[in-house]
């Protein structure tokens, strides 16, 4: 039979492990914001999201993997990231690299219509 002290110690260890665990990633934007994000393709190597934002609209904070964005029409937007806001101009069909991380997006007067191609980490062999 286990002593009360050992059970209490095990409980304390479990609480410390939960508190010290790294924070979970932000919720998947395709699930948390389906009005703006639609999964067009997903496999073990990539995920393609179709992103639409109305003119002067805003996407709440989300976290994305490394990705390539391919605009389906010209647009301007502001990305708010940990290192501050950045204005970006996208040209129809011209791909651009988007590094992984948390961000908030404010669309300009044309809105946003783009494909975001997330690159998944290579599977270990």
Describe the 3D structure.
With 125 residues, the protein is an alpha+beta fold. It contains two helices and nine strands. The longest helix is centred in the N-terminal third of the chain and has 17 residues, at 4-20. The chain starts with a helix and ends in a 6-residue tail after the last strand. The model is unreliable at 9-25 (pLDDT under 50).
Q: What gyration radius follows from the Cα positions, in whole Å?
A: 20 Å
The pLDDT mean sits at: 81
Kindly state the number of beta strands. 9
Main pleated sheet: 5 strands, antiparallel
Structural class: alpha+beta
Helix content range of the residues, please?
10-25%
Low-confidence stretches: 9-25
Distance between the termini: 44 Å
Strand order of the largest sheet: 1-2-9-4-7
> What fraction strand?
over 45%
Question: Could you spell the SSE succession in H and E letters?
Answer: HHEEEEEEEEE
What's the helix count? 2
Shape: globular
Give a nutshell description of this structure.
This protein has 125 residues and is an alpha+beta fold.
């Amino acid at each position: 039979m286990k002593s009360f002290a050992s059970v209490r110690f095990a409980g304390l260890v479990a609480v410390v492990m939960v508190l010290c665990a790294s924070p979970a990633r932000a919720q998947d934007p395709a699930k948390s914001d389906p009005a703006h994000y639609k999964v067009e393709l997903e496999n073990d190597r990539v995920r393609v999201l179709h992103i639409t934002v109305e003119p002067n609209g805003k996407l709440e904070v989300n976290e994305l993997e490394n990705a390539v964005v391919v605009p389906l029409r010209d647009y301007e937007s502001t990305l708010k990231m940990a290192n501050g806001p950045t204005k970006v101009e996208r040209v129809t069909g011209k791909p651009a690299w988007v590094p992984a991380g948390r961000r908030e997006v404010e669309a300009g007067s044309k809105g946003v219509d783009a494909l975001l191609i997330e690159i998944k980490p290579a599977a270990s062999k």
